[in-house]
Design a protein that fits this description.
single chain; 266 residues; alpha/beta; Rossmann fold; 11-stranded mixed β-sheet; two-stranded antiparallel sheet; 13 strands; disordered C terminus
Length: 266
């Protein structure tokens, strides 16, 4: 518990981050009930954005996850990412995320629910991955905590769904544009995103969404946080909170099946 408390104290010292009591004030009657998302995603979500207190699971695409965070962070919200060491600042910035407001906890340690619960007390959006082995009861408690704190919980699911999620977003396929007959650069990727859930989201919806393909690493960058101006690591006792950290790894090779276009899984 001391480690979790230290993590919250470190985050609370940052501009724009509140403790649980401050969060309650920020989510009062005058606060927007829905956090903004890209226009294409707004048409997919039953609330027109990310509703406070909801649990929205994401399956199959880190790029889709980052696209969900982009508009809200640009508007001033903070988004913590827990248990995703491969997510980095370059990919997030290319997706439009305000990386100064995206603390990463790549390795939350043995008490992942405790770390996520503490972050939900003071941050509006919390992404969580790597929760295999955590009991269903504890996962449901995290969704209840998000409702209580008027935060948005975004689990990254693999095989098993998140119990009681209000909505799950998934990518079925991607269309790549740019490569010629086995050569050339990828210029654009369009994915088919499907949403299914409960209540207002019970009717499945689909949209096509353009996602960034990424650009070459800027000169002087080493693929880590140090190569991005204005991004520095923040340390708490026993926990390392890296502001948009991790290796900047790109996907493997893509081979086009027609001039200027190719298809692959996401």
């Amino acid at each position: 518990m001391l480690v979790v408390a230290a993590s919250v104290a470190s985050l609370s010292a940052m501009d724009g981050v509140a403790t649980a009591s401050g969060m309650a004030v920020g989510a009062g009657p005058n606060a927007p009930r829905v956090l903004p998302v890209r226009t294409e995603l707004a048409a997919l979500l039953p609330w027109g954005g990310l509703r406070r207190g909801s649990t929205v699971a994401v399956r199959g695409s880190t790029a889709l996850l980052l696209s969900l965070l982009a508009e809200a962070t640009a508007a001033g919200s903070w988004a913590a990412v827990v248990g995703m060491p491969a997510v980095g600042v370059l990919a997030a910035a290319e997706s439009g995320v305000a990386v100064r407001r995206m603390p990463l906890v790549p390795d939350p340690g043995p008490d992942l629910p405790g770390v996520v619960g503490a972050l939900l007390d003071g941050i509006e959006l919390v992404v969580v991955a790597g929760f295999a082995g955590v009991g269903e009861t504890r996962l449901r408690r995290l969704s209840a905590r998000a409702r209580q704190r008027s935060a948005v919980l975004l689990p990254v699911v693999e095989r098993e769904p998140w119990p009681g999620a209000d909505l799950e977003l998934s990518c079925a396929e991607a269309t790549w544009q740019g490569p010629g007959r086995g050569d050339g650069r990828l210029l654009e990727r369009t994915v088919c995103v499907r949403a299914v859930g409960r209540g207002a989201a019970a009717r499945p919806r689909r949209v096509r969404l353009a996602l960034p393909t990424g650009r070459p690493t800027p000169e002087g960058a080493d693929g880590r946080n140090g190569g991005v101006p204005g991004v520095t690591p923040a340390h708490a006792e026993g926990v390392e909170l890296v502001l948009a950290g991790g290796d900047q790894r790109r996907g493997g090779q893509v081979r086009g099946d027609a001039p200027g276009m190719g298809r692959t899984g996401v």
